[in-house]
Amino acid sequence: MVRHSFHISTDWPGLRNDSGTLSSENFHTKISIPPEMDGPGIGTNPDEMLLGAAATCYIITLAAMLERSHIEKTGLSMTSEGIVEVDKGVITYKEIIHRPILTLGPATVEKDISLAKKLLVKAEKSCMITRAIKGNVSVKVDPEIHM
Fold first, then answer.
1. Residues 103 and 80 sit within 8 Å (Cβ to Cβ)
2. Distances in Å between the alpha carbon of 101 and those of 60, 95, 104?
3. Nearest alpha carbon to residue 81 among 133, 146, 22, 141
4. C-alpha triplet 140, 144, 145: angle, nearest 5°
5. Which pLDDT score is estimated for 7?
């Protein structure tokens, strides 16, 4: 078994509606409560960070699967949406929807298009972040393929 550790440092010098910082070896950003939850909206927030983790994990997993399958892509982009529900003061992260747009090379054959469609779904199930939140947050994929 191989184990990896990832490290984050946070600092929160103020009260609820102030801001703090989040740092790792590769990034440094301000953090606060989002304006949708009556916060100041400075920097990023936990909701965006969870969405970002799920989105980056999915798109990297998909790119690796396409590469291993020798599917020629000329473009891969995506938007993702995180849906948070507030019910009687309880805030729950309900759903993440990834909307990848995969552009395949002009010489792509039908069997590779079919495989690409399968990989667009499989990548979501294979992503370690999706597996980590499974049972708590619904994750859906709404893909587009272009030639």
1. no
2. 14, 20, 10
3. 141
4. 135
5. 96
Distance of alpha carbon 104 from alpha carbon 17, whole angstroms: 46
DSSP, collapsed to helix, strand or coil, labels residue 52 as: helix
Same domain? 28 vs 61: no
pLDDT band, residue 119 (cuts 50/70/90): very high
CATH code of 96's domain = 3.30.300.20
Query: pTM (2 decimals)?
Result: 0.93
What total number of domains does the chain contain? 2
| pLDDT (tens digit per residue) in 18-46 | 999 999 999 999 999 999 889 999 999 99
Mean pLDDT score across all residues of the chain: 96
Residues 40 and 81 in one domain: no
Q: Which domain holds residue 79?
A: 46-146
Beta bridge partners of 110: none
